[in-house]
Amino acid sequence: MLFLAKVRIDEKKIVELGKKLETGELDKSNIQMTHCLKDDPAVGISIWEVEDSEIFEEKFAPFKEYYEEIYEISPVVLPEESMKMLMNKI
Length: 90
Prior knowledge:
globular, Alpha-Beta Plaits, alpha+beta, four-stranded antiparallel β-sheet
């Protein structure tokens, strides 16, 4: 499963977050990609790949203490899957 996570980093904890990511103390192996908003670089949007929603929660949980706010967590699909879903509606 793929999940989109849109969050605001707690800027007071950004150095600690960076160190934990660098040392591997925080497992980022399930994160496919992350981008930040140009006009608000504290807001990040990442795509996570996991087996199911339970595993997502488990993998995502250690990151929560570094977020000031979680705006959105949504399951997402690849464009090919989206196309199939849309074609099945027709």
